[in-house]
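Marked as duplicate of an earlier ticket. Keeping the data here for the record.
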Amino acid sequence: AFAVAACAAADLAEEGWLVSFGIEATAPETGFGYLKRGEAISDKAFRTAQFVEKPDLERAKAFLAEGIYAWNGGIFAFRVKDFLAELEAHRPQIAAGVAEAVDRGSEDGRRFHPDADTFAAVPSDSVDYAVMENTARAAMVPADMNWSDIGNWHALYEALAADESGNSVRGAGVTELVDCRNVLVDSDGPRVSVIGLEDVIVVVDGDDIMITTVAGVQKVGKLSGAVNQ
């Protein structure tokens, strides 16, 4: 499925489109952005009518029911010259900063190193905000495939093998689970003992300990230390 989408995206990119992969939405996820499908370009591709930020649950359910929204997988296909032209048009400060970093860069055999200090001073922005939401040449190809960005602890849990009770343990720490179901423990050293819990995630990283319900994983970013980590 990915190969089919990639070939369709490559064909579009050759025609000057800037392409996003729209992952077929199978659940009302609130942790992903969405792409709204616009008019058909071909039997395998559409214009991107709208980029939508992470919705609340009710809005995500409405997207799923409408059937023309896909998860924004953050996977893109475009020709370099087309992307640079759009970057120069919509984020000229970024384009100029990167160009300067290249001009001041150095070659090391087959490697090229942009000037680190110059590059570090370039304003930071996502591909979506800087280019994809502004270009008139945004397209999307549907990709109906198993996919996860493993962007939160529950997504990681779902990607790991679990025992017959749905529990998953990883890391170097010793873990003991008693009467637990659907629990993830990730410890880098300290012993962790969990009794009688369900749908809970425990993470131990040095002196830092985080415990959350599955329902709370989207709020991890609100913790005071999350930005620095």
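See parent ticket for discussion. The chain has a mean pLDDT of 93.
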